[in-house]
Structure formats: structure tokens, C-alpha cells
Amino acid sequence: MVIELLKIVCVKTIGDSFVKDGYLNKQYCSDIVNSLSNQLILENNTLYVLDHLVNTIRRIIYLTNSNTGRNIDFRIKNRRTAGLIKNNPFEKITKSIETIAVYIYDKNINSFETIYVDLDIDDYLYIIFSLFPKPLYNLFSKNIGLIKFTIVGFTGFLVNLITLYVSTNLYSKLASYEFATMLGSITSFETSLLWNFLLHEYWTFRDRGLKHDKVNLVIRWIKYHIGSIISLFSQVSIVTTLSGYLHYPLYLSLIIGVLTGYISNYVFSSKITWRR
Prior knowledge:
It is built from nine helices and five strands. By secondary structure, the chain is mainly alpha-helical. The longest helix is centred in the last third of the chain and has 32 residues, at 214-245.
């Protein structure tokens, strides 16, 4: 069955330069439906989609269901004409290779509906991952928590570095440079730790439904401190053992130490600090 002008769900996404005030206009939606007429099939109130659109549509349907309370029956059919398939069927309309939008249900040909779905950072990560080859997409999408943890860790490193330079310069005006460096290191460590903790609390592990009252926040803050100290200890131990005693190159022992500390910190945070 070829899709006619059905009721449409239009979703704002990364490549939304064609969206005015957060909504797609009727003509754009009509154009998109027409462009997809040979790629989407509606049978018995079920939306069928060719497999090259699977990841995109699965994500959009999830967003639509969770934001509007709707329920779409979604099934997959194998691609039919490989030569006609593009990675992004919306590119010609939107002029943006990053645009991912729309979906369709309801056979009422006279009705038209636009639903605005506000995307958060997690949604954008999934959309970006959907542009990767399928094996990478599967790897990243199934380990989104680890990727978010890595992003937070990188920003924490930048906070640590900036705070170290600023605080050391300030302390050096009041004490010797050696003492100022020590105080600066402590200050930068605690500042980056607080930064990371807040991002993990309200972003990385926010989907775990934990209570954010003062008591639970303090408990998790203490646990996170313990996990970070364990991570630091494992890193120092590995570097000392490999380079100090076994005479491996310093850069190699540091890489192994950082990776080990990172993994131990993630496991501790995921399984203990922010345990469900």
C-alpha cells in the first residue's frame, strides 16, 4: 500500500533549519510523506519500514511514544531496491545530511497534526550514533552510560586543568610556589570531582530514578569520593610498579594506569554510588 497524506508526526531534530518556531509546516510534511511513499508501508494499522531506516525510526517512535503517550506498532521489512536507497531520505528536502524526522500513522486522510518533541542531550547522542556504521551504532547505543561517563570525565579533566593553573597562581601570591602547587592540586582535584559528581547525578545516571534529597546526595558524594580515591590509587600503583620497578616506558604505564583507574571508577560509580 502506498502511503497517502496521513496524519503526521513531525519531530524537530539536529538538521532543523527548515523548522519555523519549532514546527514543520504542512507543505514540508506533505513533501516528506511523498518522498517516503515507496519506503513506508501501512498495513492493518501497522507501520512497516525498510531495514535501512530501522534505527532512525525506532528512535523517533520511542521519542513520540514517551512524549505524547501514543503507541505505534512497528515492524521491519527488508530493503527492496538497493540502488534507490540513501542513508538519509530527508536530505533532499531539508538540505541537511543530519536531519532525521517524521512518522506516520492514522488513515484519516483529511486530518493533519504536528507534534513537537523536544530533544535532550541523550537524544542527540543517539541521533549522532545513528549516522555511524551499524556495528558502531550498536556498540555505542548499548553503552550510552559509559559514553556519557567518558564525556563527563573529559570535561572534568578540563575543569581540573584550568582550576589548577588559576588556583596555583593565586596561592603563590600568599605562599611558596611548592606549597601553592600542592594546594592548587588539592583544589583542582576537589573542584573537578564536584563537577563530575553533579553531571553524573543529573545526567549520566539520572535515568535510575534515585532520590535527590540532601541525605542521599551526601551519601552518594561520599561514595563517589571513595571510588575516585580507589581509581587514583590503582593508577598510581600501576605506574609505580610498571615504570618504577619493571622499567616499562612511563607513557605506557600511564596509559594502562589511566585506563584501569577509569574502568574501576566507572564500575564503582555504576554498581555502588548510583546503584538503583
